């Protein structure tokens, strides 16, 4: 009896091929995003680590362009939603629509059911909308009425915050910030980079089109690449370093007694999981089959800055979470 291809098991590409595909995706994004190397790397890390990003930066720093470039290189759908004070949870999740033809209600899916979602200026929407988004991020499902709807397996949210014009905004509560894998801060490009951005913009405007990736990366390859992270070697010393670094955000006394006066709350166990996954993703992106202390140190500020709350005294003295994390990276012994 002949066996059809439909019944045959799906072949999983080798790690080498998967790494080449993700590298091709990274190169594609870099053709459209200039001067934001960290943002591109963190975006790919979030994709591989199955997490979500909170990106903070002034307007016009390619935050929207970055995730659009990622979407253009994947066999995945993308949607952008502008968060405003009058937005309702149903505008995000969808709602049940009444059909008079058969007197029934049918669920009309909202933009959250896309693979990649840009929540632009998330802090401009009221708490109910933010909660609907963060619940979907954490549970990977949406409940409307009595029914629960699963979100796609490949699901990534990139939320942006504008550090200026804070009037009329609703800051995300610290407990909800913990749902984000990383909190990234984006700065202005250099003079040479801005000159290249200008040239790229002129070229794109002249062609009246954006740069597309030939043969986009499939969702199956992304999901397979995620599994590769768990095969990376992490020594007991490196794992202990990672654990002590997170524990030091809760009790820094053993390393520096003065830092204890800076601290109000430390990072949760979710930070430990996030730091482990992100360090593995960074090592894999750099073509290594092991995790080094450098991977942990490089990614630690983005993983921890939104999970560490400083005391009022530290804030009054002008310290921010990055100062605290920098001190910990200095004092916690590196294996």
Could you give a quick summary of the protein structure above?
The chain is α/β, with parallel strands linked by helices and 335 residues long. 44% of the residues lie in helices and 15% in strands.
Structure in words:
This protein folds into two domains: 25-203, P-loop containing nucleotide triphosphate hydrolases (Rossmann fold), CATH 3.40.50; 232-331, Magnesium chelatase subunit I, C-Terminal domain (Helicase, Ruva Protein, domain 3, Orthogonal Bundle). 44% of the residues lie in helices and 15% in strands. It starts with 14 loop residues before the first helix and ends with a helix. The chain has 335 residues and is of the alpha/beta class. Strands 2-5-8-1-9 form a five-stranded parallel β-sheet. It has a two-stranded antiparallel ribbon with strand order 3-4. Helix 2 crosses helix 3 (63-72), helix 2 (37-49) packs across helix 10 and helix 11 (293-304) runs antiparallel to helix 13.
């Amino acid at each position: 009896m002949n066996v059809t291809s439909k019944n045959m098991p799906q072949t999983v590409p080798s790690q080498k091929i998967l790494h080449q595909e993700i590298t091709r995706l990274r190169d594609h994004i870099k053709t459209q995003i200039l001067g934001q190397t960290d943002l591109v790397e963190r975006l790919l890390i979030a994709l591989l680590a199955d997490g979500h990003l909170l990106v903070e930066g002034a307007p016009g720093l390619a935050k929207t362009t970055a995730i659009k470039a990622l979407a253009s290189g994947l066999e995945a759908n993308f949607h952008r939603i502008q968060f405003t004070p009058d937005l309702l949870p149903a505008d995000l999740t969808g709602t049940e629509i009444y059909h008079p033809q058969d007197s029934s209600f049918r669920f009309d899916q909202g933009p959250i059911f896309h693979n990649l979602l840009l929540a632009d200026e998330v802090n401009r929407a009221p708490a109910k909308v933010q909660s609907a988004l963060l619940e979907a991020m954490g549970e990977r499902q949406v409940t409307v009425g009595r029914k629960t709807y699963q979100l796609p397996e490949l699901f990534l949210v990139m939320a942006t915050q504008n550090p200026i014009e804070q009037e009329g905004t609703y800051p995300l509560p610290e407990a909800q910030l913990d749902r984000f894998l990383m909190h990234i801060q984006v700065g202005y490009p250099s003079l040479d980079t801005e000159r290249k951005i200008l040239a790229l913009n002129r070229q794109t405007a002249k062609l009246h089109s954006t740069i597309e990736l030939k043969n986009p990366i499939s969702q199956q390859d992304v999901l397979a690449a995620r599994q590769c992270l768990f095969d990376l070697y992490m020594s007991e010393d490196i794992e202990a370093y990672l654990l002590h670094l997170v524990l030091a955000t809760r009790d820094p006394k053993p390393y520096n007694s003065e830092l204890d006066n800076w601290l109000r709350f430390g990072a949760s166990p979710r930070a430990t999981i996030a730091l482990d996954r992100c360090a593995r993703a960074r090592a894999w992106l750099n073509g290594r089959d092991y995790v080094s202390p450098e991977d942990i140190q490089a990614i630690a500020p983005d993983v921890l800055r939104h999970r560490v709350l400083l005391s009022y005294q530290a804030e009054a003295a002008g310290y921010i979470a990055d100062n605290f994390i920098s001190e910990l990276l200095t004092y916690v012994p590196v294996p």
